[in-house]
Specification:
A hairpin with a 2-residue loop joins β16 and β17. The radius of gyration is 20 Å and the shape is globular. The strands form 7 sheets. It has a 5-stranded antiparallel β-sheet with strand order 8-9-10-11-12, with no helix packed on it. Strands 13, 14, 15, 16 and 17 form a 5-stranded antiparallel β-sheet that branches. The protein has 340 residues and is an all-beta fold. The protein contains no helices and 28 strands. It comes from Oricola cellulosilytica.
C-alpha cells in the first residue's frame, strides 16, 4: 500500500495505483492556524472493482462491489480497517407485495409499534426526487399484539420516502413513526405518527418547505440521556441544504430551522438516503452528526466544533460510522476510510 500527504492546494498523484491507495488530508480551513486545527486522516482505497454501496448491518459494516460484499474488520494498518470475506445480508426487510416498490420494513424490538412500511403506491405526485414518480399513499404498522393498522393519506399528499423510522421520541415507552410527507401545495415535511386508542393517528407535523417538489431528507435521530430524541434533517438538500431539528414531547412538536446551511445528504434521483451518520467519535458521551457539504466534497460536523474534512471527490454512497472511523465511497467508486 502506498501513501502520501495531500496539501490543501491539491492532490498529489501516486507513483503507483495498481493496489489499494491511502493518503492523509489535513482537515483544516485555510484561514485557521495549524495549531488550532484538528487533523483528520482520509484514506482512499482504489480497489480493482468499484464500490457500489456501503452498508451497516447487525453482522457488521460492509463495502459492496456489485454482487460481492466484504466486511470492514479492525486491523493493524494506518486506516484501521481491512476488507474480509464474510456472509452479507441486508438488515432491512423488503416490504410485502402491494407495498411501495423498493420500500422496506423498519423493525423495532420493543414498544407498541414493531413494524412500519409504506403502502398504496401512487404516481399522483410528479417529482421523482427518489428516482421515479411512485410514492407511498399510506403508512402501515404492526403493533406488539400483531394487529395491522393503516393510515391512508388524502389525494393531495404522499409519503416521499422509502422506509419509515420507528423510535420513541418523547421517552414515554411508546413508539412514534417518523416519516417524510409531501403535499401538492407545500412540498415536504416531517410528520410523526403513533397509536391512540388502538388506532394509527397523526401526532404532529413539522412545517412544509413552502412549495411543491421541494423535498427534505432526514439526517439522523440523536437520543438524549433523558430518553427523548431529536430528529435532524436537511431541507432542500439539492438546493442550498438547510439543517433543521425537531423534537416531540408532551404531545407538542418543536422545530428549529436554519441551524446551518450548505449541506446535502442526497443525490437527486437516487434511492440512497443514508448520506449521514451519528456517532460519538471522541468518547466524550456526546453523539455527533456528520454529513456532506452541498457539493459533497467535504464532511461537516454541524453539532460540534470539529472542522470540515476535505474529500478527494464527491461522495454519493451511504456514510457509516464503525470502529471510530467514518466510511463512505465516492461517485467513481473509491472507498474512503476517514479517521476524524
Amino acid at each position: 500500500m502506498w501513501g502520501w500527504k495531500v496539501s490543501v492546494s491539491g492532490y498529489r498523484r501516486p507513483r503507483s495505483s495498481d493496489a489499494a491507495i491511502a493518503f492523509a488530508i489535513a482537515a483544516a480551513a485555510l484561514a485557521v492556524p495549524a495549531d488550532e486545527a484538528r487533523a483528520a486522516d482520509v484514506y482512499e482505497m482504489r480497489l480493482p472493482t468499484k464500490v457500489t454501496s456501503v452498508r451497516q448491518t447487525v453482522n457488521g459494516s460492509f463495502a459492496v462491489f456489485g454482487e460481492e460484499a466484504f466486511r470492514l474488520d479492525p486491523c493493524p494498518t494506518p486506516e484501521g480497517l481491512c476488507l474480509s470475506s464474510a456472509p452479507f445480508s441486508e438488515t432491512s426487510v423488503n416490504a410485502p407485495r402491494n407495498a411501495l416498490p423498493g420500500g422496506q420494513i423498519d423493525i423495532a424490538d420493543a414498544g407498541d409499534i414493531r413494524n412500519a412500511w409504506y403502502g398504496r403506491p401512487t404516481e399522483r405526485y410528479a417529482h421523482g426526487a427518489l428516482g421515479d414518480d411512485v410514492e407511498g399513499g399510506s403508512l402501515i404498522v404492526v403493533t406488539s399484539q400483531g394487529k395491522k393498522l393503516e393510515f391512508v393519506l388524502p389525494e393531495t399528499q404522499v409519503f416521499e420516502d422509502i422506509t419509515p423510522r420507528i423510535t420513541d421520541l418523547d421517552g414515554d415507552g411508546n413508539n412514534e413513526v417518523v416519516t417524510i410527507r409531501s403535499s401538492q401545495s407545500g412540498g415536504a415535511a416531517v410528520v410523526i405518527y403513533g397509536l391512540e386508542e388502538n388506532e394509527l393517528v397523526e401526532r404532529a407535523a413539522g412545517s412544509e418547505n413552502g412549495a411543491p417538489n421541494r423535498w427534505l431528507n432526514i439526517a439522523g435521530i440523536i437520543r438524549s440521556a433523558d430518553g427523548t430524541a431529536t430528529v435532524y434533517g436537511v431541507r432542500t438538500p439539492h438546493i442550498g441544504g438547510r439543517l433543521f431539528s425537531i423534537t416531540y414531547q408532551d404531545g407538542a412538536l418543536n422545530e428549529v430551522n436554519n441551524i446551518a446551511t450548505d449541506f446535502s445528504n442526497h443525490v437527486l434521483g437516487s434511492t440512497e438516503l443514508g448520506l449521514s451518520a451519528v456517532m460519538d467519535f471522541d468518547g466524550d458521551g456526546i453523539a455527533e452528526l456528520v454529513l456532506p457539504s452541498q457539493d459533497r466534497t467535504r464532511l461537516r460536523f454541524p453539532l460540534s466544533d470539529r472542522l470540515d474534512i476535505a474529500l478527494p471527490a464527491p461522495v454519493d454512497k451511504a456514510i457509516i460510522a464503525t470502529e471510530g472511523r467514518i466510511v463512505t465511497a465516492t461517485e467513481d467508486g473509491a472507498l474512503l476510510i476517514i479517521v476524524p
